[in-house]
Amino acid sequence: MNHDIKDINLASGGKKRIEWASNDMPVLAQVKERFEKEKPLKGMKMSACLHVTAETANLARTLKAGGADIVLCASNPLSTQDDVAAALVKDYGIPVFAIKGEDNKTYYKHIISALDHKPTVTMDDGADLVSAIHKERKELIPQILGSMEETTTGVIRLRAMEKDGSLKIPVIAVNDADTKHLFDNRYGTGQSTIDGIIRATDSLLAGKVFVVAGYGWCGKGLAMRAKGMGANVVITEINPIKSLEAAMDGFMVMPMSEAVKIGDLFCTLTGNIHVIRKEHFEGMKNGAMVCNSGHFNVEIDIGALETISSKINKSVRNFVDQYVLKNGKSVYLLGEGRLINLAAAEGHPACVMDMSFATQALATEHVIKNKGKLEPKVYDVPKEIDQWVASLKLKSMGISIDTLTKEQEKYLASWEEGT
């Protein structure tokens, strides 16, 4: 089996990690059980570009159980858990092309290796796989039934491709499903980002001024968690409605140019480029720490930080680099500006990824069931999938909810009755 991982001998630790995560993924387990019986993905060759974590491993196992011939590569150079990659290859027979800390050349080589599988279905976290297909492997387009996109940044890219007529395959925006972004983005990102920051810095958040750039679902989750740990949270935004929402949620709201004067810790979660740049670094307090929890490392202008630095001290702690600026102040960059929750920690907890990945698996089945019916555009996840996943999650948590009476159903379906 062709693969490229760090060390196959790490497999035993990875298998334990995968099994531990599976204990907290009951919804995905039910999908896997049905897939094993029905084989809805039989005959499908799949290439998936995702964070190679224990949770992702359980998704890959589910897709394989459904009959898919699946290959996995990393969607970020620092997000791979090497022991998990080894276990997928050794214990579960799934080819993996991913090594934590791989350089950009290797990262893109691994993407091409995944595409050499000649997939009929793809799965993305950031749209790098789909982008590579459209730029370098156009001959694959006619055979691809569709793709699933897992993250906000990827959906932004894909909608841009659809808008200018560049998108040539159907894509399901899994990120936009309620069972994904309302939970994974908010609670998953909130907790795992805090986890990564604390593991990297060993900092006490209480009393610090914590600047969150972006108040989408990821930013909301992080702001909520930072506030809960006693930080004084500042929100920077470009959207007036989100800014107003942040203010009414009890956070300080101001431009980044003002926030840099008071911030102790900065985290970007916008999906945009150069949110923190040269003039911002120069205005920061001595000892300010900067990190990113958006998908790509472009949110922080690292090139500009390098140009205004007189000295760079690499790895003053694991995943912490010190930049001594020409003005004498120091700025600390965490996780090389890449996803801090995956670079320095373990990513989202399995409980929340249970819903995201169950939705991913069911969206894949939906694409295959609708072979030839989907146009080359971005689709939402069918609402019935969302409702089913949410209902199963509630059941797994021991939570019951009300149902409508016949009288209530009739009332909601009519317009005659008023006050």
UniProtKB/TrEMBL annotation:
S-adenosyl-L-homocysteine hydrolase NAD binding domain sequence ranges: 185-347
Residues annotated to bind substrate: T53, D125, E150, K180, D184
Catalytic activity: S-adenosyl-L-homocysteine + H2O = L-homocysteine + adenosine
Cofactor: NAD(+)
Pathway(s) per entry: Amino-acid biosynthesis; L-homocysteine biosynthesis; L-homocysteine from S-adenosyl-L-homocysteine: step 1/1
Alphabetical keyword list: Cytoplasm, Hydrolase, NAD, One-carbon metabolism
Keyword Cytoplasm: yes
EC number(s) per entry: 3.13.2.1
Record-level GO cellular component terms: cytosol
A matching Pfam family: AdoHcyase
GO function terms (MF aspect): adenosylhomocysteinase activity
UniProt cross-references to PANTHER family, sorted A to Z: ADENOSYLHOMOCYSTEINASE
UniProt function note: May play a key role in the regulation of the intracellular concentration of adenosylhomocysteine.
Descriptive protein name: Adenosylhomocysteinase
